[in-house]
Amino acid sequence: MDLPTDIITDHLETTNTVLKSPRMGAEGYLEFENPEKLTSKGESFYLNGNHPEAMKCFQKALKMDENNLSAWKYTGMIQQLSNKHGEAIKSFKKALKIREDDPETLYYLAVSLHETGSYQESGDTAQKLIKIRADWDDAWTILAMSLQGKGDEEGAIEAYGKALEINPLNEDAAINLKELLED
Fold first, then answer.
1. Domain 34-98, CATH 3.10.450.50 — does that match?
2. Distance, CA of 83 to CA of 78 (rounded, Å)
């Protein structure tokens, strides 16, 4: 057997192929993330208060899967926090096309509708929510706020009362009821 007699000390000079940096490919790995991982990462960013990064994750997830309920819901929640209620309403309605009886989405939709002055639609959405989760004090609170916005003070007082019956520590219901009764 003949072995090479010259020793090669610099392998880079003798190879014809391009060597990749060990860090190359990390960017490419992100492209192969699935919508569930992106949504989970976005939820973590959201819960930690990093809404811009969360939004990027949700938008990427939605490009991969436009039927991602959580991504639509969180997108709407971030838009709502940014006072972009019109955009939030669109996002929540897309989420409800995927699952029409999702309580959180109905709640956040009712809130954004209320914030835009759509009291009737907000109240109708809150009624749907109460049929699903009658034990949720915030559902009764948003119904009360919608009724109050429409001028139905008697209905609002009753709904605030129901919210406080479920959760006596609901500050929004307590404050709004007190203001309503003082007027």
1. no
2. 9
